[in-house]
Write a structure and sequence with these properties.
alpha/beta, Rossmann fold, L-fucose Isomerase, Chain A, domain 2, 2 domains, 6-stranded antiparallel barrel, 5-stranded parallel β-sheet, elongated
């Protein structure tokens, strides 16, 4: 994700201890700079309504990811209201404690954000807050999570996703509710007929296909052993999809991968989607879901944006209650960067159709976050959880792995079935639960957390 821009706007009243307040401001500024934020600042702290109005005018066109109002001293709420109404970004109110000395109340910072919070609530303006020292690590993390969530929300509002074909019959979990996605997330959907992809794939020059195969052979050393006509079919599909993404400026694809790719093109689409999701061929990673699962693609986009790494959409195909483990599997579309480096990745045949190209490797070990933008309740909800991919042999052919859950496996299974959740989840390496919860709260999506709580 790009460097996060934070508008850092301190408020000071001259009737309080200004030198002490200025020290608090400097300390908070240093904490934010040290954390890597790009700060947007006024020339001096805001001291009156006129100054607040000028800042509001100056900053309204700068589009910060977050506005941090640092309440260095008490002030009435007029200045914060002016800023919050003018700048299109989430508001974070930060007050600082001061020693209880029995003497002068030097800052009265807490009362300032209390007053501000009431004024914003009356105007239905949401905000987050902290009452903590300028060096407080948890506060800086809260600021990071909220700024990151805001940046992600903006990226989604500008994002365009392609849906190729319709989801297969009976795959209701892949249903596209375009109006709801637009209303809640702001994403744009472009429908693309399967026939357009097939025609473009058939027109890819043989020289381009051979060049792609040469590059891919550096990562998969068994391509020459696979049926070559079908292999080249997958590689032509990869190039066709890549062209469509570039021409239409798409940020992700949801592809009806069966049965037509097998029956019309004589190949599997899985390998092509793996390559795109991985950023193969010097393009940015383009998240792809099979079965035209657009909510899966958007979930992968969210995870990819937060982590700066490719994400993977997978089925849950087995649960072992005794060890709290879940078997994850998909035919072969996981990004190759998720392969266990101790096991050589291979090109493979689709497990049901016997055609290439699918990827074949176990998922690498490490902490993972899984998520799903679910519509099981008829409204959008973000399902979240954590686990650990284990460095074990893959449970099935294709791209698969074994995840140890962060909750009892029976509880996971009960939630999966009692909530009627979709059969796909998306995962990425790392812990992004707090960031996802913050994002869901920002865009007003309910969450279901699958953990020990």
């Amino acid at each position: 994700m790009k460097s996060l821009q934070v508008a850092f706007l301190p408020i000071v009243r001259s009737t309080f201890d200004v030198p002490f307040a200025e020290q608090m401001i400097d300390d908070a500024r240093q904490s934010l700079v040290k954390a890597g934020f790009s700060l947007l600042e006024a020339s001096q702290p805001i001291q009156n309504l006129d100054a607040a109005q000028q800042v509001a005018r100056d900053f309204s066109s700068l589009n910060p990811d977050l506005v941090v109002v640092f309440q260095a001293t008490f002030a009435d709420s007029t200045m914060i209201v002016e800023i919050a109404q003018a700048i299109d970004a989430p508001i974070f109110l930060w007050a600082v404690p001061e020693p209880w000395t029995g003497g002068r109340l030097r800052l009265n910072s807490l009362c300032g954000i209390n007053l501000a919070g009431h004024a914003l609530t009356l105007r239905r303006i949401p905000y987050a807050y902290a009452y903590a020292s300028p060096q407080d690590v948890q506060t800086v993390q809260k600021i990071f999570d909220l700024a990151q969530a805001s940046s992600l929300s903006r990226r989604l509002k500008a994002a365009r996703f392609g849906v190729i074909g319709e989801h297969p019959p009976g795959m209701d979990s892949c249903h596209l509710d375009e109006s709801k996605l637009k209303e809640v997330l702001g994403v744009q959907i472009e429908r693309i007929p399967l026939e357009d992809v097939f025609a473009r794939a058939r027109a890819i020059p043989q020289s381009t296909i051979e060049q792609t195969q040469t590059l891919l052979s550096a990562q998969l050393d068994n391509l020459d052993t696979l049926p070559q006509v079908s292999l080249k079919g997958t590689l032509s599909v990869y190039n066709a999809l890549k062209e469509i993404v570039i021409e239409r400026k798409l940020d992700g694809l949801a592809v009806r991968c069966w049965p037509e790719f097998f029956t019309e093109m004589g190949c599997a689409a899985c390998g092509a989607m793996s390559m795109l999701s991985d950023g193969f061929g010097q393009i940015s990673p383009i998240p792809c879901s099979c079965e035209a699962d657009i909510n899966g693609t958007i979930t992968q986009f969210i995870l990819q944006t937060l982590s700066d790494a490719p994400a993977f959409g997978t089925d849950m195909v087995g649960v072992e209650q005794e060890t709290d483990q879940v078997a994850l599997w998909h035919c072969g579309l996981a990004p190759m960067t998720m392969a266990n480096p101790k096991v050589r990745a291979q090109g493979g045949l689709h497990s049901n159709r016997g055609l290439p190209l699918v990827m074949d490797f176990p998922l690498k070990p490490g902490e993972v976050t899984f998520a799903r933008l679910s519509q099981a309740t008829g409204t959008l909800r973000l399902v979240l959880g954590k686990g650990e991919m284990l460095g074990l042999p893959k449970p099935f052919s294709g791209t698969s792995g074994i995840m140890r859950l962060n909750l009892p496996a029976q509880r996971f299974l009960d939630l999966l079935m009692s909530e009627g959740l979709e059969h796909h989840i998306s995962l990425v390496y790392g812990d992004y639960i707090n960031a996802l919860e913050t994002f869901a709260e920002l865009v007003a999506i309910p969450t279901l957390i699958m953990d020990r709580r």
